[in-house]
Amino acid sequence: MKKIYGGIYSKKPSVSTDAFIVDEAQKKAEQLLIPYYLWETLAHNYMLAVQKIVPKKVAKKILSKLLEYLVQADETGFNIDPSIGDVHENFEAKLTADIGSDAGWFHTARSRNDQITTDQKLLVKQFCFDIFTKLYTLSGTLGYKSKRYASVLMPGITHTRVAMPSSFGFWWQSYLDELLTVEELFVSVLAVIDKNPLGAGASYGVNWPIDPAKTQQWMGFDKPLVNGLAAIDDRGIHELYLLGLFVGLMTVLSRMMEDIVLFSMPEIGYFSFDESFTTGSSIMPQKINPDIAEKVRAKIGTVLGCLVNTCVSLKGTPHGMNRDSAETKTAFIDAAKTVSDTLGIVEEMVATLVPNEIAMKHALAPALATKLVDSIVQTYNIPFRQAHEAVGKALKASDKDIQKITPQLLAECIGQVWVHHVAVTAEFLSKVLDLDGLLSGFSYIGSPNPKYVVYITKKLLIKNKKLAHTMYVKQKGWNQAKLQLINDVKMYMKKEGA
Amino acid sequence: MKKIYGGIYSKKPSVSTDAFIVDEAQKKAEQLLIPYYLWETLAHNYMLAVQKIVPKKVAKKILSKLLEYLVQADETGFNIDPSIGDVHENFEAKLTADIGSDAGWFHTARSRNDQITTDQKLLVKQFCFDIFTKLYTLSGTLGYKSKRYASVLMPGITHTRVAMPSSFGFWWQSYLDELLTVEELFVSVLAVIDKNPLGAGASYGVNWPIDPAKTQQWMGFDKPLVNGLAAIDDRGIHELYLLGLFVGLMTVLSRMMEDIVLFSMPEIGYFSFDESFTTGSSIMPQKINPDIAEKVRAKIGTVLGCLVNTCVSLKGTPHGMNRDSAETKTAFIDAAKTVSDTLGIVEEMVATLVPNEIAMKHALAPALATKLVDSIVQTYNIPFRQAHEAVGKALKASDKDIQKITPQLLAECIGQVWVHHVAVTAEFLSKVLDLDGLLSGFSYIGSPNPKYVVYITKKLLIKNKKLAHTMYVKQKGWNQAKLQLINDVKMYMKKEGA
Amino acid sequence: MKKIYGGIYSKKPSVSTDAFIVDEAQKKAEQLLIPYYLWETLAHNYMLAVQKIVPKKVAKKILSKLLEYLVQADETGFNIDPSIGDVHENFEAKLTADIGSDAGWFHTARSRNDQITTDQKLLVKQFCFDIFTKLYTLSGTLGYKSKRYASVLMPGITHTRVAMPSSFGFWWQSYLDELLTVEELFVSVLAVIDKNPLGAGASYGVNWPIDPAKTQQWMGFDKPLVNGLAAIDDRGIHELYLLGLFVGLMTVLSRMMEDIVLFSMPEIGYFSFDESFTTGSSIMPQKINPDIAEKVRAKIGTVLGCLVNTCVSLKGTPHGMNRDSAETKTAFIDAAKTVSDTLGIVEEMVATLVPNEIAMKHALAPALATKLVDSIVQTYNIPFRQAHEAVGKALKASDKDIQKITPQLLAECIGQVWVHHVAVTAEFLSKVLDLDGLLSGFSYIGSPNPKYVVYITKKLLIKNKKLAHTMYVKQKGWNQAKLQLINDVKMYMKKEGA
Amino acid sequence: MKKIYGGIYSKKPSVSTDAFIVDEAQKKAEQLLIPYYLWETLAHNYMLAVQKIVPKKVAKKILSKLLEYLVQADETGFNIDPSIGDVHENFEAKLTADIGSDAGWFHTARSRNDQITTDQKLLVKQFCFDIFTKLYTLSGTLGYKSKRYASVLMPGITHTRVAMPSSFGFWWQSYLDELLTVEELFVSVLAVIDKNPLGAGASYGVNWPIDPAKTQQWMGFDKPLVNGLAAIDDRGIHELYLLGLFVGLMTVLSRMMEDIVLFSMPEIGYFSFDESFTTGSSIMPQKINPDIAEKVRAKIGTVLGCLVNTCVSLKGTPHGMNRDSAETKTAFIDAAKTVSDTLGIVEEMVATLVPNEIAMKHALAPALATKLVDSIVQTYNIPFRQAHEAVGKALKASDKDIQKITPQLLAECIGQVWVHHVAVTAEFLSKVLDLDGLLSGFSYIGSPNPKYVVYITKKLLIKNKKLAHTMYVKQKGWNQAKLQLINDVKMYMKKEGA
User: Fold this and answer.
1) What are the phi and psi torsion angles at A299 (to 5°)?
2) In this model, does residue D498 exceed pLDDT 60?
3) Mean pLDDT comparison of B60-69, B416-425, C489-498, highest-scoring range
4) Are the C-beta atoms of D142 and D350 separated by less than 8 Å?
5) N or C: which end of chain B has fewer CB within 10 A?
6) pLDDT (average), residues C22-35
7) Closest Cα partner for A207 from B150, D436, B442?
8) Which of A127-131, B370-374, D166-170, D492-496 has the lowest mean pLDDT?
């Protein structure tokens, strides 16, 4: 296959060069790019026609073929041939085979540099829409669980030790809130980087009367080209900003999965989930292992690795396109696919998670120590620190078991830290240890009071919907741009006649 | 020193435990946190007073001391003593020394978990404001240079090889555009994460009628507490989102520095900068080394390392506060200080960068090959690919020197790729090689046409100002919140009488 | 302060340049380098004297001062002044102040490039010796525990679920074995990279009749200089190889700490450790948090961050010294200090770890399922997979509680998977569930049979000693080289007379 | 497909679980593992036969099929079906289809945990042998070039600025030396981690009289199983140690590639390489871009990303097998394949690299400044620092052009820094600037004196051969072990009769 840049060359790239440039990962990526390549190429060539850069007759031949390829790409697909080269080289070869030397007009006023940067950005947007949709679905599930279990007691944990009374709904809500932060950031970051790179040429513009405003509109980019060199150099850097979000998100999920692995241990048993998200052992018949949760927990590794890869690939390369930046394409695809797949399976799994209310209630006792301190402060007007000290001493004297503390012991311990004598009653103690209405004592939003948990979850779910709507409108406009372009091209073909 | 949690303990932490927990990096961090700790502590204790959680008399004692500490912290400073513990333990010890057992009320309805998370977030905001200011200044300098040198020819580079005609102003503008993207993201991300964590308590709220809306206002947070557990678990995750931006920014700077190291080589000499940003050699008297540019180029290493550290520290830890998250504080400080220092020295250095117009013009010839192709297409109506092939062949036959191409040779090469004969004139060739008005041929925004470069830079500088104004208003409101709080506390002290 | 490279310069570096080059981290590093700098400088200058490169009289003046500085450095210390510059610039300034223009001979035939590379390598070696010593001590403790608890039953865990019978000694032994791998690698890697860089000059040698073999001997390097450029370019790369080991080691420790956090939970309670390695809560009096274990668990973040930093700093820099490589010094120090401190506190903490034999025995039941399968295979000659299936079915029918399986049920389940009828007896089942002699049934080395655990641990402890001896001999030779050098210099001073 | 662990289960894993567990990357990895799986499985089952754990008749059926599969795997291949599961589940299904219920014996006394750990280790070894072979070949090429060009002058570079005289051979040698360090480390690290994991079972051994010493021998592992839990937990950790080497190696290559991109710029033109390792531009006909060098330069990103991934996946997981560790398999394969492919193409490319002797000689002048300093010291007995200062001043007064320095100017500059008058002659200066015999003045090994470069390169090439021999012997023994095993099994089949 003759190379499209062959004039100055005395020989072709070595076979190993071709194989190294379009390696397995690149080939897969080029394959994924095909629909975006065709969209961008149609937009560019239609613009060339409208701007009268390419002779009308030739333009029509090209556009007609591109419309054909678009349909074919959806239906039967194409296979990138790495020995020909990248997605553009493959289609330039195909077009040349199909229409002969007129295909020579097809890459006018464009470089593979702005072409691939544009195609990659379109693919990135598609991934963002997909990931957002999965985030939205997962958030919905978390919100449902949060409301449903707002009154189910659960020990709040810090340092993997029982800390304070909490609820199962509050636990779900915490992850909901963290995911909505990611959603908000997603919307914001995507808005900032949604720029049209087409028209950048090799990095320094092209010597033709092109109109990037048109291609921007036809590819549904929010923002125009402002500096061709920046447009090219942004490749990978914009992806880094998204990868920063992915890394945060996956870190949050790794923690949720640790919770699931840990608190579904039979010894702890706060909750369980459907065994269809576990696998067993080839040797130990009793095993029901939380493999999905474990694998998700590990997946931050893949995504962080991709961020590191992207950053390292670009580090210290001079301005303008360099081959190094091709690595940012494969790294982003790997990361985005991982995030997307992970969100899907996590949603499926957590939807099956059910509480073991008895186990959680049973585990709650140690969590009442702070309530005891607070009650002492409130009842006997002793400063907090001294009350804390006294309860600590009482626990030490009772095998660290709050239920073994007697009124006498507590009074004695208070006596050790406070000047005034205090008469502790059994009623006082039993009221502290009473679990009824435990959470409704919390008096403000942000606490696990079920009333507020439900109220806030409702608000968060509305926010989830609003963010989803914003993205939906954006995505719809984007899809619309493509349909409009195809329509316009068809009209042009008709209008201009044979 | 007795520990504030000593009641249940039979013995104190080992000396090595104290030293490991508050190690050198943590000590430095706690030191930096002092003013934010005092701000947050004043807000919390004033809220306790207003909510009547702490007896009025005690509250006034505490508030009066906190106001004193604030003044002292500004003037003479405090020194964190690691053997006492973290910033809170140090100040609780100090307050106890100053006012005795009433200090026991001071930590009521608060945990060190929400306290440190809040303090860290305030410090993070301060870093963001500092870094933004430096970004703004650097962008201003880049914009100035971009306008000034919009007409100075410069070879555009791709693959570290001369590619296309460009201008020095266009090169500056590309970095300006990339930095403005960072600024925009900064504003967006900061808006999303600007939440009040105070009131989260240990992670599950507190059993007191506190009012987080008040402390939110007094500390100038945009958004309220919505879930205490999320507020605590966000620690480090929110920092990750900012670190993602830092990593992008520093990668961009690493590339700018590579440009500076490379294109100021005497052999290339496109530009030079003041020798006060270089150092010499202890052995080689001729040496003037671009050390600053090199060290900045390397600094993405530090910042990426901090992002990795933050992510790894949190990965797979269960919900609720864990000690692991303390690492996110030191990692963020290290990264943010690096970014801030780097932006400062980069601005100083690039301000001195001056072009070598002759060298750049001289280097431009190879960049004209594409213009030759385009001119052939435009003049002789030959398809682009064939014209490209012909020029490639002509270059191959001319030692790859465009200036050696003769009309005959070119005609001959065209003949090899195109059916129709074409008569190439010497005028045609000399017009292509003419550098006058080279850039003004580019006809659209995004290209290096000086007219558009100046126009766009002006717009970008307006955007820079607008973003800076947004941040300025935000920062002013933040500072105002603190002053208002101090005033309100003083009023309260007066109003409530002795 | 005049710069040592000032001749060609019209002005001095800006204040900000000095501050950026010798920033806080670099200053701390230069401070640590002082003793190694003086050692290397003494070796170099003595070599200059012996090779008659520097006039004897001058050489003696310089050597006499260097001996003085060495003593002072040990006793009162020096303070690096960043405004003067790095460690060399500080000492050249000092020597000039002390002996005047003769100090001008002191840097003959040397560059700061080979000097700092050599000094850094000496410091790296010191860190390696320190870290190895701590590894050795920790391994000793693990070995002691392994032998002591070889017969204490413990449930073996996979997927955080009870898997198979094991012993507490076997658990300790696994970490011992993993650490010994690190020790072995340490010895091997250190042997490979122990090369003398002095004589490399700026990277390309010096025009003087120096003798690197002498300085190699006097600084105790195993291997000679072979290529000056490689010697300089190895800076940071050799550190990367060590950082690879650190990363492995710290990952292992992060897992050990997870075990400690998890299996010391009161709900699980397999073991406990001294409360002097925990901290409490400022708000919750019942809290005894495993802070040390958590912080150690997080510390792989720091070390991995340092490896990333080192790699990124060097990535894509051209051959020969560049300022970028200075970052490798601070990154290595940060990582090595972290590893060293971590190993120290881990050893202290695990030394206090004691088993809760009852809890572990009690938790063992589910671990017997595989034994039940194996016994069925052995007793009834049923293939393993079918027996596994039968036991699985029996567990499903018994609330997943092996102790609820009856002979009838088991026989029935076997009947579902196997053609021949089998009569299961109560004796058969009770023998399977018997914990006595459970581990002694394992018949080979590598299994938790206490006999083999003790046997292997003894062998591992011998290996630990042998490796330590190798390192001891190496370190002793290294220290000896320094003493010998000082002695030789003193002899030279005496012999050569006044 | 029924799962091999299905007894206890009420339902099968969800389709999404199967797809997530054996995702695309895992499927590819399992595919690669097939020959190693079969080797290990044959060894295990032969051991079961020899130890009489499995009835002879059954054993023979199984062994006969395994021998068949081995041949088939080489010839026609198998395709892993992810809906069945991993490599073992696929082959257990196949064997069951082939021989019926006797296949139930086939996994006796083994777990998928020790099985996959063993298979992965065998694959890792194969990659190590492949990579070593490529390192060896590349080192050979570097050595050849180093000797050939030992006398070809080349400016030595530091800080991307001309520093000192050097040779093209010296430059090649520096990379040769750095690669040999990697080779040595490779041999050392591989020796340490070459342990047999089979017999570890799920992590805690198996209740059968197995003999791991036998399988160790039959799979060619250097070292025996010593602790089953460590054997399992080493998975990924051992890979980390190798990845540390890969990261160092790829960082070195990224620097070599930067040299190649930079110093083959037409503006600099120190050397060039064959255009079959470049690609052109779709738009700019003059372009010959060093794409291979650029892509290799970026590839440290992939490898560092894999190291980060591996470390993060394992971080903080509890002892014993967890699903998280499966990620270490795919990450290692990705990294190792990248390293292997990279070394191959680098060798091909650098083999074509040829010097431009004239350009390098021409660029050498600035590199003579240090020689001038040294000559002043040697001729006029002026201290080095003062001579350095004087030459610096002379350069400043001569447009930084050493060739413009006159005897008068130099004398004058010396006069400014030294008390005694010095008469500089034109002969003195012209001798300094003479390039003849420039390098032969260097008097020691490690300097660019061609004599020593050739001498040392010869020694390094011998070392290269010796290391390769060590690896060859190791690899041969390993292959031998497999052949021997197959032979022994065939003998067993025959001997035991039908």
Assistant:
1) -70, -15
2) no
3) B60-69
4) yes
5) C
6) 94
7) B442
8) D492-496
Select from B202, B168, B218 the least CA-distant residue to B66: B218
Q: Verify whether the Cβ–Cβ distance B268 to D267 is below 8 Å.
A: yes
Measured CA angle at A464 (ends A458, A467), to 5 deg: 140
* pLDDT (0 to 100) of residue D77: 82
Among C492, C194, C149, CA closest to C354:
C149
Tell if the CB–CB gap between C5 and B282 is shorter than 8 Å: yes
Q: What is the C-alpha separation between D24 and D132, in angstroms, rounded?
A: 28
Contact A110, A206 (CB under 8 A): yes
D236 close to C297: Cβ distance less than 8 angstroms: no
- The β-bridge partners of C153 are C167
Q: Residue C262 and residue A267: Cβ atoms within 8 Å?
A: no
In single-letter form, the type of residue at position A19 comes to A
CA dist., res. D285 & res. C352, Å (int): 73
C-alpha to C-alpha distance for B399 and B181, rounded to whole angstroms? 43
Element (DSSP H or E) covering residue B161: strand B161-167
Q: What are residue C445's DSSP bridge partners? A: C447
- To 10 degrees, what angle do helices B237-263 and B326-350 make? 30
Global pTM value: 0.97
Report the 10 Å Cβ neighbour count for C406.
14
CA distances from D197 to C179, C352, C371 (A): 17, 31, 21
Q: How far apart are the first and last CA of chain A?
A: 33
Between CA B368 and CA B403 the distance in angstroms is 10
Q: Tokens at residue A475, please? A: 């995505």
User: Smallest Cβ distance to D204: which of C166, C185, C394?
Assistant: C166
CA separation for the pair C313, B300 (Å, rounded) = 7
* Separation in Å, CA A66 to CA A94, A114, C48, C387, D306: 11, 19, 76, 62, 39
Q: Is the ipTM of this complex over 0.90?
A: yes
Among candidates B91, B67, B150, B82, which has minimal Cα distance to B488? B67
Q: Work out whether the CA dihedral C238, C241, C242, C244 comes out positive or negative.
A: positive
* Degrees, nearest 5: CA angle A240-A260-C154: 120
Share the mean pLDDT of chain A: 95
Mean pLDDT confidence for A469-474 = 97
Please answer yes or no on whether B285 and D261 come within 8 Å at the CB atom: no
Alpha helix (H) residue ranges in D267-290: none
Q: Which residues pair with D154 in a beta bridge?
A: D166
Q: Do D282 and A11 touch (CB under 8 A)?
A: no
Element holding A162 (H helix, E strand)? strand A161-167
Tokens of B340: 């801030």
What is the tens place of the pLDDT at every residue in B173-232? Answer: 999 999 999 999 999 999 999 999 999 999 999 999 999 999 999 999 999 999 999 999
Residues 6+ apart with CB under 8 A from C437: none
Determine what percent of chain D is predicted with pLDDT higher than 70. 99
* Ordered DSSP codes for B418-451: -SS-----HHHHHHHH--TTTGGG--SBBB--HH
The continuous run of DSSP H or E covering D165 comes out as: strand D161-167
CA distances A278 to A350, C305, D318, Å, are 12, 33, 18
> What one-letter code names the amino acid at B164?
M
Of A284, A317, A370, the CB nearest to C164: A284
C202 touches D: beta carbon within 8 Å: yes
- Give residue B2's pLDDT: 77
Q: Which of B4, D166, A440 is nearest to C202 (CA)?
A: D166
- Kindly give, in sequence order, each residue whose CB lies less than 8 Å from that of residue D408, ignoring residues fewer than 6 positions away: D424
Q: Which residues on chain A are in Cβ contact (under 8 Å) with B395?
A: 7-8
Cβ-based contacts of A373 with chain C (< 8 Å): 283, 285
What is the C-alpha end-to-end distance of chain B, expressed in Å? 33
CA neighbor of A179 nearest in space, from A362, A347, A7, A431: A347
